[in-house]
Amino acid sequence: MPLKILADENVDFRIVRNLINKGFEVISVLKDYQGIQDKEVLELARRHHALLLTEDSDFGEWIFAHKEKNVSVIFLRYKPSELKNISDSLIKILNEHGISLYGKFVVITPKKIRSRII
What we know:
Elements lengths: L3 E4 L5 H9 L3 E4 H4 L5 H11 L2 E4 L3 H7 L7 E5 L6 H15 L6 E5 L4 E5 L1
Parallel strand pairs: 1-2, 1-3, 3-4, 4-5
Antiparallel strand pairs: 5-6
């Protein structure tokens, strides 16, 4: 199964463009589903069997407090000056771990990566 990524509308488009340029299949909420609610974003990720890439910490609450199931999240935390670093780290993680990221909540910061099975 090929790796699919659903980029939430808050993900910097330079990161989305970098993913596309590196050959990843990316569905863009900003481009194709602008303005939909978080619950709809989760459903879209499930429907497309895509990793949800976001900068919105609310998705942690959806997963851990509201017990949303069958969705995988990559949460990016960085300062604007760290954009290239976080984008490069994301590409590296996707290439190294691929579909094994499904079923996890992954937090990527410039200094560390944390992963939790959900």
